[in-house]
Design goal:
Layout lengths: L2 H13 L2 H8 L3 H15 L4 E4 L2 E4 L1 H25 L7 E7 L9 H11 L3 E6 L6 H6 L5 E5 L7 E15 L11 E3 H4 L4 E3 L5 H12 L6 E4 L3 H9 L5 E4 H7 L6 E6 L4 E9 L6 H22 L11
Parallel strand pairs: 3-4, 3-5, 7-11, 8-9
Antiparallel strand pairs: 1-2, 5-12, 6-10, 6-11, 6-12
Helix pairs in contact: 1-2, 1-3, 1-4, 5-11
Length: 314
């Protein structure tokens, strides 16, 4: 099976007619039909249903069409990468960064460092939630993501970068910990919380932790805006739950209480997410390296170490 046969087959399916496909490809119709027959013989499957109205792919044809598109896209990417080999990486690279995370504070460093090293790369940054991540990565709308790890998702792979304990973040006047820097999950469940929507992995982790202990979730509101969340906590209308690194990054000028949740503790993972079915482009690989370096440096600066597992008592 060669790529020319695959490209012919994709064109036939897209055109809905061998005649139209032959005209678009500037190939004689009998020769195009022979290529389809060769594919069918090779795969021992009927791929097209022919009628006076044109052609329709069979179930096997639909399967081949999907794979052929991926194969042809990879071949084209390989041609481009080889053609630009030795030259500076260039192109558009899209990254999703989880809101409500330490990772979101990396945005200025990522943009600055990519611009310094690779001026021909344009970085597209967005915020995204784990629930819609899989399709965005698999269909190529996103090259990579730095997010709360949601668990195994088919078609993408996660590289865990950091595992952290979750903390309750409240107004400094809230006297719930009695001078300690920890709080039990049962005590934390008595506080009204501002959390992201249900499709956010962080929200799901918190809800599961409470449900497992048969504790209530006292949800005051769903907030996706960090400035709004800051104002709400500052007004003492409720608290939130975050890793300490995220709280430090999101509220650097606030004196909020940040109390580690214990008995039982809750943990979250920040992970790099990439597709597992095809390699990254040269530009995306270059940006991925910068992202890893920025995260590594931030951990070194903040904690004096480069662990995947942060200390239980930061």
């Amino acid at each position: 099976m060669d790529t020319r046969k695959l490209s012919y087959f994709v064109q036939i399916v897209d055109s809905g007619s061998i005649t139209k496909a032959a005209a678009a490809l500037h190939v004689a119709q009998p020769a195009l039909s022979q290529q389809v027959s060769a594919l069918e013989n090779d795969l021992k499957q009927r791929l097209l249903i022919r009628s006076k109205q044109g052609v329709e792919p069979t179930a096997a044809g639909h399967t081949l069409y999907r794979h052929a598109q991926s194969i042809l896209r990879l071949v084209e990417q390989a041609r481009q990468d080889v053609a630009t080999s030795g030259a500076a990486p260039s192109g558009r690279v899209s990254i999703a960064i989880a809101p409500y995370s330490m990772a979101s504070s990396l945005t200025p460093q990522i943009i600055s460092e990519v611009g310094r090293r690779y001026p021909d790369i344009v970085v597209h940054l967005t915020e995204i939630f784990g629930g819609v991540l899989s399709e965005a990565i698999k269909n190529g709308r996103l090259d990579m993501a730095l997010i709360y790890e949601p668990g195994k998702i088919r078609g993408v792979q996660f590289t865990t970068m950091i595992v952290e304990d979750l903390h309750l973040v409240v107004h400094p006047d809230v006297d719930i910990s009695h001078g300690k820097d920890t709080i039990t999950l049962a005590e934390a469940s008595t506080v009204g919380l501002f959390l992201p929507e249900k499709n956010h992995t962080l929200r799901q982790l918190i809800e599961k932790g409470l449900t497992d202990q048969d504790l209530p979730l006292r949800l005051v509101g769903e907030v996706e805006s960090v400035p709004s969340l800051t104002r709400l906590i500052r007004a003492n209308l409720g608290g939130t739950v975050l890793p300490k690194s995220a709280a430090d990054a999101l509220f650097p000028d606030q004196d909020f209480k940040v109390l580690r949740i214990v008995e039982p503790g809750l943990q979250s993972k920040i992970a790099l997410c990439t597709p597992d079915h095809e390699p990254l482009s040269e530009a995306a690989s270059a940006v991925l390296m910068v992202v890893k370096e920025m995260l590594h440096q931030q951990l070194i600066n903040k904690y004096g170490t480069d662990p995947v597992q942060l200390p239980a008592h930061p």
